[in-house]
Amino acid sequence: MGPRGRRKDELGQPVLPPGDSPMFLGEYRHGIDAKGRMFLPARYRPFFAAGAVLTRGLEPCLYLFTLPEWRRVAERIGQLPLTAPEAREWRRFFFGGAFDVIPDEQGRILIPASLRAYAGLEGQAVIVGVHTYLEIWSPSAWQEILERFQNGRIPPEHWMKLEI
């Protein structure tokens, strides 16, 4: 048993009900040190304790996946046809920019220089919970995203096609 009576597996990760996944929520601001290390939000560290995968996001951000979620996403991408040029491009972008990361004893991950450059990360980062994974943004890029919503530059009709 872990804190608050939560069961943990042999790797120390929280045991979730069968078929359940952690739900990542919220916005966190953390520094990035000179070596490129960044603290993970404390409440989510147990889910990444056995390792994680960090890769380029579609916008200028990074995606951080738990190992189980990475396997699910990789499986779906792996089913794309090799004969489709778009599928090959997506695989190159997504897998070519992916790195295995393991948090240190303090709960920090090392963000490779190439990924820091891609996302424009210098000294500070905004970590955003996006349901099944985390996104890591530069503060200025994240602010631009928020302003698009706050200033009404994205009309409500835009979201109607998602049928939420």
UniProtKB/TrEMBL annotation:
Keyword terms, alphabetized: Cytoplasm, DNA-binding, Repeat, Transcription, Transcription regulation
CDD domains hit by this protein: MraZ_C, MraZ_N
Protein's UniProt keywords contain Metal-binding: no
Region (Disordered) location: 1-20
Principal localisation: cytoplasm
Domain named SpoVT-AbrB: residues: 27-69, 98-141
GO molecular function terms listed in the Swiss-Prot or TrEMBL record: DNA-binding transcription factor activity; transcription cis-regulatory region binding
One GO BP: negative regulation of DNA-templated transcription initiation
Complexes and interactors: Forms oligomers.
Cross-referenced NCBIfam families: division/cell wall cluster transcriptional repressor MraZ
Protein name: Transcriptional regulator MraZ
Organism name: Candidatus Thermoflexus japonica
Protein's gene: mraZ
